[in-house]
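Before a colleague's protein record goes any further, I have to sign it off. Alongside the sequence sits a line of tokens, each denoting a local backbone shape. I want your independent view on whether this chain really folds as the tokens say. Where you disagree with what is written, explain briefly why. This is what I was given:
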Amino acid sequence: MNKHRTLKAVGFFVVLAVVVAFLALPNSEAAKGKPIRWKAAILPVVDGNLSGQTADFIGGENGVDITNGTRLCADGINSYSFLQMRVYDPSSLNFYMDKTSFITSNYDHAPDAPAPCGFNTVDCSWPNCVAEFLNGRDQPTPEYGWVCVRFTTYRCDNYNLMTMKVSDPPVPVHMSIEFWSHAFDCPKNSPWASNPLHNLIMNAHGYTKINTSLPDIYIQKISDKDLVNKDVWTASVNTIFDNSDLNKYGESYKDFVPTSSEWAYSDNILGQFATCSGKGKNTVMKYWYPWAKAPLKFQINFTIL
């Protein structure tokens, strides 16, 4: 993707993010025309995988978008709550994953599957290519429009993170980190039409293991607004993508086999790998979903300014 196309794409996503951010506001805030302004800080933790090039990420500045909100579920009655940070250009995040830390992985070695695993700047086998892509590169890289770190309450449980109190116990949440290249299509005259695309998604659902007191992924409110303090929530992640519990829907996050419809509910580091072939109406897209598991650990403070 050349510089002009990259800046054009980033500009579009920034405008879209502003609109989404306003729509995502709690009704009372949106009605007042008073958007919530957020600050996020990635905290130093021992053996952490994620760090930032800046002490604070301010929503609406330097290609950073931080939003919260609630969404209705498909039944039109129940809802879920989310809190997320999306980082565009310029590159601002640093990841590190040891190649030897991967616990298990799977790659579809179908006869027609390309040997590389899809990253344009990496040419090695899965899952080493995940570490090669993440390590030593500021994220998002030029070929990836944005990185989104998102925390969501469990499906349709009607819990609202914004009503949380300091006295409330930690709430296990679903975490996703998305490195997004572009949508799954083969547009005409696109430079991607003859090249593979690869989106990288990290999904994990917080739960409390035996002999532990805290979920491996959770959000806790650590400060309420008063004359001195501000409202602050801490999101904590310390997972190896091994949630073996069945949720209330009878789904096992560990045992889900990722497909185009199921990947969002599986605990893994997932590659969404696709290639285009043919032209025009005869264009065909093929998909592969390699996945891997490895330790991931970090903390982020979200503060209302």
Remarks:
- The chain has three helices and 18 strands.
- The chain has one domain: 3-304.
- The longest helix spans residues 3-23.
- The CA atoms of residues 276 and 285 lie 5 Å apart.
